[in-house]
Amino acid sequence: GLECRRTREGVGLLDISGFARYEVTGPKARDWLDYVMASRIPGSFRVALAPMISPSGKLKGDLTAFNWGDGTFWIMGSYYLREWHMRWFGSLMREGVVVRDISEEWAGFSLAGPRSGDVLTKVVSNADVSGSAFPFMSCRGMDVGITRAKVGRLSVTGELGFEINVPVTEHVTLYRILKKAGEAFGM
What we know:
Layout: H1 2-9, E1 12-15, E2 19-25, H2 29-36, E3 46-53, E4 59-67, E5 73-78, H3 82-91, E6 98-101, E7 106-112, H4 116-123, E8 139-144, E9 147-152, E10 161-167, H5 171-182
Antiparallel strand pairs: 1-7, 2-5, 2-6, 3-4, 4-5, 7-10, 8-9, 9-10
Helix pairs in contact: 4-5
């Protein structure tokens, strides 16, 4: 209960390493995603909820798509379905598209709650993370402390939030940076 109240009224930190991450690249990546996902594919530096359905209408995945603005897309979803999703992607594969499971290469944290932006502002040196500069369902690369991160402005809690992803080798460093910055806000 205390953790929920602190997140709802202030800020909480949640490890999101348990999400699967798939990287989609290639000259036909956007067209392929448009074929595979039952949603609009996000524009550059945007995020979208991206369900996958079979031709018969059966739900194949409740995913989130990120467009990093450089021709690279990420799909994030349930970690335990990684192999199944990769088989599904493989069955729909087309020339000009590369899909890689990068779940073992990337990890991260979610900052959530009304003070999450205050915590992130303390540790970001090259970006404005205010709502006007970094609106809901946006994403971009930025420096978080000494880490180069991929950050999305969204949250699984329904509160203001950010998903911050870094290479696995920087996961502990990111934790320490965020934990220290969050102390002043009771995180």
